[in-house]
């Protein structure tokens, strides 16, 4: 098992349950709400969200093959809670992080450019 897989599993089992209650309220720690492709259950996944002009960008440090990413893609969107506000998002698409940098404000543009994360999920704010 790769290190990133072990880290993702640790975060899913240990870190996420600890931080889920404050995610969505604390800057940069947000929640993506998505519906399971098979179960139909609603899930809330803590993520790092950054505002763009049309929606949000979500870093994918564990790669593009995560269930929550697949769930958002299959459903065509979900909901995001950031800064205490929840809103619907649509049009999930995975893009190279380098393509997202121009959509972000400083200092996030510089920080994400140095983060070494290959891909980012872009979501459009619905309505």
What does this 3D model show about the protein?
The protein has 127 residues and is of the alpha+beta class. The chain contains four helices and six strands, in the order αβββαββααβ. It has a single domain (3-125), classed as Pnp Oxidase, Chain A, CATH 2.30.110. Strands 1-2-3-6-5-4 form a six-stranded antiparallel beta barrel. It comes from [Mycobacterium] crassicus. InterPro entries: F420H2_quin_Rdtase, Split_barrel_FMN-bd. This is Nitroreductase family deazaflavin-dependent oxidoreductase. It holds the Pfam family F420H2_quin_red.
Give the SSE layout.
Layout: H1 3-19, E1 29-35, E2 42-51, E3 55-59, H2 67-75, E4 77-82, E5 85-96, H3 97-100, H4 108-114, E6 119-125
Antiparallel strand pairs: 1-2, 1-4, 2-3, 3-6, 4-5, 5-6
Mean pLDDT across residues: 86
Low-pLDDT segments = none
| Alpha plus pi helix count | 4
Question: What structural category characterises the helix and strand content?
Answer: alpha+beta
- CATH topology-level fold name: Pnp Oxidase, Chain A
- The number of distinct structural domains comes to 1
Helix content: 25-40%
CATH class: Mainly Beta
Pfam families: F420H2_quin_red
InterPro entries: F420H2_quin_Rdtase, Split_barrel_FMN-bd
Protein name: Nitroreductase family deazaflavin-dependent oxidoreductase
